[in-house]
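Researcher: Sequence of Transcription elongation factor family protein follows. Predict its structure.
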Amino acid sequence: MSSQQKGNQFDRKELLKIGKNKKKKESCPTEIALLVESVLAELHMAVEEDAELNRQEKPAITKLRNLSLLTDIIPRKHLQQEFLDHGVLDALREWLEALPDGSIPSIDVRATVLKCLNDLTIDFEQSERIAQMKASGIGKAVMFYSKYGEETIANRKLAKELLDNWSRSIYRISTNHEDMKNYEEKRTYRRPPVKKTASNAAAGASQDDVLDEELSQGRKYGPSSSKKHASRPEAMSMDFVVRPQSKVDPEAVRARAKQTGQGHRAKLNKKMQQLKATKRKQLQVAKPSPYM
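Model: Prediction complete. Tokens:
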């Protein structure tokens, strides 16, 4: 272990004491700000170090060594708002992004980040919190893992729950069972299909489309950004504006059909002649001799 790493560990031990043995009202705002900035700096540094290790084709284990930051410090109730103010959502999104070779972070990292997001209390009554979420691109990252086929069932379930909770909070959707049932029926049965055309885009999209757009801002991430990994195929819209040019030549088709038909007729005529010749020969053999 290098002297710099030892120094970082000592600093972290000192920072962990802030707010741990004191009540919230006794914590100094300057000390809390120092703690938050130091933790975020370590989160960003872990991302950069793992990226460099990956380029050198070495195991990217820096994030794994710093998981305690996500489990022991960020979830603390009296520190959460300070972390949100300093852009912790950007840092957590970076932890979910793919490495330079296109591989995704380890399962422990993904599970810990999703659990940390679930422990965060985000007040969507504040418009700046919604703006922070849109700018961070965290929604796009969580949405990716909610649909990623190779993700664990537990992580996919947690990612979907996060998206549902954020959606209800942003659009004031009631958590009452009957209200949720009516909302789902309205989404499934009563909403007419909307074609993705320029006129519809100008007129405006549905709430679900708006939410997807709001939660989908941010940088590219995940294995789909690498050629080494297969991406899930998406259905292609069939609303063509220009008819595709046909690759079939009608004249060539008719000429080929005519030639084929003549060949079939020639074979048929030959077969009929053979049958007639065989029948004529049989009649000649069966005719009795007049001298018998």
